[in-house]
């Protein structure tokens, strides 16, 4: 008698490492960084996707630098508006025209320094999806919120506004959990802290989409070569959104290799 297949097979997830260069770039520096990254990552397990979110003025240059590599080009933000009198903004259509594959939305620095609300972040995610860009929706609690025991409430609320706004496209999102207290501080969440938030986010997504098990959930906040292996081996951590370490070619390459090591052998 044939053995029945398990009803819920383990999801064959990929890993994904996205660099967020923030406001750090120069023509010469970008060329040197990506030449070194490209060289280090030749032969990387193809189940590891990598990419970089660059400042808007460098999109055209970096598009050329990534040509011929599997690296994804991304932006750090996109406008909530389609077009028109919005000085300083960059639309999803413009990002698309310059070859972007993804855009961050709702990074904590946008929320805290530029007053972005979850409602605005959700509209940005919808705009990005409408133009065929993958929104990387960033959520995360502050230290005060964590200490007050509000972590799960905060991140779920941030995500629920986006889920509601994008409707049936939820499964196309990438979600990045970035605890605000871990960003740029050198103090990453422990693998256990990050895993339990990721599991909660995936459970929340599962209510909205049958694709939740395949969705990429990234951790961000002081991920570096010394802590990457443990973080990336958690069952619900599918990769990283990397700030500082994405500016150092050997570090970013080491994180991608750690992601490859965390995957099951092919
Ligand atoms: O904000 C981040 C990525 O978006 C994380 O930054 P760091 O990796 O520098 O902590």
List the helices and strands and how they pair.
Elements: E1 15-20, H1 27-40, E2 48-54, H2 59-66, E3 72-75, H3 92-97, E4 102-105, H4 108-113, H5 118-130, E5 134-139, H6 143-147, H7 151-166, E6 174-177, H8 191-208, E7 217-220, H9 225-232, E8 239-242, H10 249-262
Parallel strand pairs: 1-2, 1-8, 2-3, 3-4, 4-5, 5-6, 6-7, 7-8
Helix pairs in contact: 1-2, 1-10, 5-7, 7-8, 9-10
Model description:
This protein has helices spanning 27-40, 59-66, 92-97, 108-113, 118-130, 143-147, 151-166, 191-208, 225-232, 249-262, and strands at 15-20, 48-54, 72-75, 102-105, 134-139, 174-177, 217-220, 239-242. The protein has a single domain, classed as TIM Barrel (Alpha-Beta Barrel). The longest helix has 18 residues, at 191-208. The two termini are 29 Å apart. It is an alpha/beta fold and 266 residues long. The protein is globular, with a radius of gyration of 18 Å. Helix content is 41%, strand content 15%. Mean pLDDT is 95; it is low at 1-9. The chain binds 1,3-dihydroxyacetonephosphate (13P). 1,3-dihydroxyacetonephosphate binds at residues 20, 107, 178, 183-184, 220-223, 241-245.
């Amino acid at each position: 008698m044939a053995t029945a297949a398990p009803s819920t097979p383990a999801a064959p997830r990929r890993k994904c490492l996205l660099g967020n260069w923030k406001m750090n770039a120069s023509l010469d520096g970008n060329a040197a960084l990506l030449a070194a990254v490209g060289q280090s990552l030749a032969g990387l397990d193809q189940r590891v996707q990598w990419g970089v979110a660059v400042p808007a003025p460098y999109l055209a240059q970096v598009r050329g630098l990534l040509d011929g590599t599997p690296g994804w080009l991304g932006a750090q933000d996109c406008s909530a508006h389609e077009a028109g009198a919005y000085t300083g903004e960059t639309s999803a259509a413009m990002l698309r025209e310059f070859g972007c594959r993804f855009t961050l939305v709702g990074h904590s620095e946008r929320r805290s320094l530029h007053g972005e609300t979850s409602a605005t972040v959700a509209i940005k995610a919808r705009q990005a999806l409408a133009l065929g860009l993958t929104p990387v929706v960033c959520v995360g609690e502050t230290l005060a919120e964590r200490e007050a025991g509000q972590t799960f409430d905060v991140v779920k609320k941030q995500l629920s506004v986006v889920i509601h706004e994008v409707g049936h496209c939820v499964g196309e999102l990438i979600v990045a959990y970035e605890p605000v207290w871990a960003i740029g501080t050198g103090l990453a969440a422990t693998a256990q802290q990050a895993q339990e938030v990721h599991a909660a986010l995936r459970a929340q997504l599962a209510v909205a989409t049958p694709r939740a098990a395949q969705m990429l959930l990234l951790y961000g906040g002081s991920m570096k070569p010394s802590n990457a292996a443990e973080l990336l081996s958690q069952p619900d951590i599918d990769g990283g959104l990397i700030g500082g370490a994405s500016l150092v070619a050997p570090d970013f390459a080491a994180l991608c290799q750690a992601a490859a090591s965390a995957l099951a052998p092919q």
